[in-house]
Amino acid sequence: MHNKLFTIKTKSTKSKARTGVLNLGHGQVQTPVFMGIGTAGSVKSLDNDDLIRLNAEIILGNTYHLWLRPGMEVIQKANGLHQFIDWKRPILTDSGGFQAFSLSKIRRFSDEGVFFDSQVDGHKRFLSPEISMAIQTILGSDIALVLDECLPAEVTLETAKSAMHRTFEWAKRSQQAFEKLTKEPLEYLKLSEFEKEQMNYTLKKMPLAREARRSQRGQNGLSEFYQQNTFPVLEDYFDGKSTFFPKNPRYLFGIPQGAQFVNLRKESAKMTMDLDFPGYSIGGVANGGEPEEMMYSQVLAQTEILEEHKPRHLLGVGTPKDIIEMVKRGIDMFDCVYPTRNARHGSLHVWTNIETLEYETIKVQSSRFQTDFSAINANSKLPELQNYSKAYLRHLFKAGETLAYRLATLNNLEFYYDLMAKLREKIELGQI
User: Fold this and answer.
1) Active-site annotation holds for 335
2) Catalytic-residue membership of 94
3) What is the number of domains present in the chain?
4) Is the pLDDT of residue 199 over 60?
5) Annotated catalytic residue, options 50, 94, 332, 418
6) Are residues 277 and 346 located together in one domain of the fold?
7) Each residue of 263-315: pLDDT tens digit?
8) Residue 54 within any structural domain of the chain
9) Rounded mean pLDDT, 327-332
């Protein structure tokens, strides 16, 4: 069954690199692939025609952001994210866990899920494996990800081990919920009710659990709580009335973790494999501040274990150099804000020699480009980048014109898509 999703075309004899094809409900995707980040349902400053011209075969949608705004009522009434944003190609959605961790000043993890304060309206929200799966079902993405516990770049062994085991338990719950939701999605009003009930249960349990760790009396109180309360489950919220149902085949990827500890990375890969997901999204590598070699060893420890015939996605990586190195270590799919965020700050990726994968990153706002009337990219397939000059782009940034963001984003994403095409070519020629 799983091999319907991913076909390997070419395997390198020099490294773990390979080319392949993802067969998804909204189309095929050539791998290795880079996915542009469509945070709130759009890749910032671009429209879908731009993405088609760049040949973006798949984009990433952020579960957390779309859940909070515009909300599941809007998405469900639009019949899913594809229809809402008028995108006819594949979409991968993340689980929402990383944003709950990174964007909220106050967040609390528990075995049940994670509390956080919404940066949209300040309200307390609760995200659990079941809620994440219900949101992603309403979004209707081709690939969904399990909810995982995210960590800072470097943590203690004890913290990493605890998060790894919690992520594994959440992966099991995500998988069970995903399978139930493929038979009947949760209607948005029921999802809101479900979130409140899971949140209330967890809020009552948390102080009792803390007391139980300290004393026997607390343990008795927790036992009494369990006798009187059961954790709300999906089945109680299905009402058979939902008219929305994603029509495309959908896949759920597991997330192996392990922080900076190679032994935990190996253990987490084996545990996640036991659940037999159709693909994997390696997490916890790009949280910020990791030395390159640590990142590379973390990933290699897991790609050496994860089944070769399944696709491997690396969450949040990265720079062009990191992508080249990670492809050699067996990664098929990438996503990162790096090219689009850099673009908005006037940093442009420019090839110095695409055949040898040599490039530089220039700051177009620098005074040296004030009278540089050469094309933004003379080799581009886009007329805008062939015709507008670096001097003009510098002026647009200095003047605060929004066209600057669009042109710079087109440049950087074209660079990334050209990078992936060149990597595929080099793998097929046996050069990587």
Assistant:
1) yes
2) yes
3) 2
4) yes
5) 94
6) no
7) 999 999 999 999 999 999 999 987 666 688 889 999 999 999 999 999 999 99
8) no
9) 98
